[in-house]
Amino acid sequence: MSEDQIFEYFHSEIVNYLYNEKTGNDLSALEYIGYASGYRLIERLTREWPRFKDELDTMKFICTDFWSVIYKKHIDNLRTNHQGVYVLQDNAFPFLTKISDGSEKLEHAPKYVAFTCGLIRGSLANLGINSTVTAEVQTMPSCKFHIQVNRT
Amino acid sequence: MTIYNMYVFDKYGTLLYYGEWNRLRKSGITEQEEAKLMYGMLYSIKSFVCKISPIDTKEGFLYYKTNKYALHYLETPSGLRFVLNTDIGATNVKEFLQQIYAKIWVEYVVKDPLWTPGSPVSSDLFKLKLDDFIKQSSLYGIRTI
């Protein structure tokens, strides 16, 4: 209970610190923190795991085990076009559940999801999948993470 | 039973939130003036109760009652002050205020990253949750006698 709160408060302060009027709309630092955390986190989380069969298997791991370690819940919906695009939908994304809904608050949403975008990208990178992750918030507190796998 | 209105002050006397449900009579002054008056009175009562008490008190001032309404007071260790006006039949209001603090205030104000500590609460989500919580409670709207 209390360690979740620390994570929540810490995250919101990092957002406040990195994202203010001076730096403008630059979310890259926040995203990078997420990337580095995700990259390291995966080392420890997967040590009991066999290798993943394929990309979809890896995504399922992200949606269930990975998500429950960080947010104590599962992703509500996973969709894919089987061509490298995955959409992860969380209907009550924890960083957004305490913010009130409304159009003027909605503009604050991107800065609270940037860290998590990086987190997903970093963990996938360490599992051998290079990707681009973006997030989309239409109504609070629901959030969609779009993962575009980069094939080379 | 019914709940009339609620004030939340911080330790410096700033009005953080004011909510109104069944208030029948207006004070005729602005909300800010009324808040100052209310805070001043609470401050006085608190020090009066402490000074005049013949024994050591743990909690100090808890509530007062007139013929028509009761004012319940909860002060947290951090200095937040919750004030709730109910009719005189209301019971267990102290626990109720504690629940408002723990379940609504901490969850939807303290954990709201867009709220700056010490500033008035503008979150619609908090207002909504507080409204629901008040209206679902047995203190609200049900006439037992």
UniProtKB/TrEMBL annotation, chain A:
Keyword Chloroplast: no
A Pfam family it matches: TRAPP
Record function comment: Component of a transport protein particle (TRAPP) complex that may function in specific stages of inter-organelle traffic. Specifically involved in the early development of neural circuitry, likely by controlling the frequency and amplitude of intracellular calcium transients implicated in the regulation of neuron differentiation and survival.
Organism: Tabanus bromius
Compartments reported by the entry: Endoplasmic reticulum; Golgi apparatus, cis-Golgi network
Organism placement in taxonomy: Eukaryota, Metazoa, Ecdysozoa, Arthropoda, Hexapoda
Keyword annotations: Endoplasmic reticulum, Golgi apparatus, Neurogenesis
Protein name: Trafficking protein particle complex subunit 6B
Any one GO BP annotation for this protein: nervous system development
Gene Ontology CC: cis-Golgi network; endoplasmic reticulum; trans-Golgi network; TRAPP complex
Family according to the record: Belongs to the TRAPP small subunits family. BET3 subfamily.
Automatic annotation (TrEMBL), chain B:
InterPro entries with a match to the protein in the record: Longin-like_dom_sf, TRAPPC
First-listed, main subcellular location of the protein, grouped into a coarse class: endoplasmic reticulum
Listed SUPFAM superfamilies: SNARE-like
Keywords: Endoplasmic reticulum, ER-Golgi transport, Golgi apparatus, Transport
Pfam family, one: Sybindin
Protein name: Trafficking protein particle complex subunit
Annotated source species: Tabanus bromius
Segments crossing the lipid bilayer: none
GO CC terms in record: endoplasmic reticulum; Golgi apparatus; TRAPP complex
Family statement: Belongs to the TRAPP small subunits family. BET5 subfamily.
Signal peptide stretch: none
Assembly: Part of the multisubunit transport protein particle (TRAPP) complex. The heterodimer TRAPPC6B-TRAPPC3 interacts with TRAPPC1 likely providing a core for TRAPP complex formation.
GO biological process entries: endoplasmic reticulum to Golgi vesicle-mediated transport
Subcellular location: Endoplasmic reticulum; Golgi apparatus, cis-Golgi network
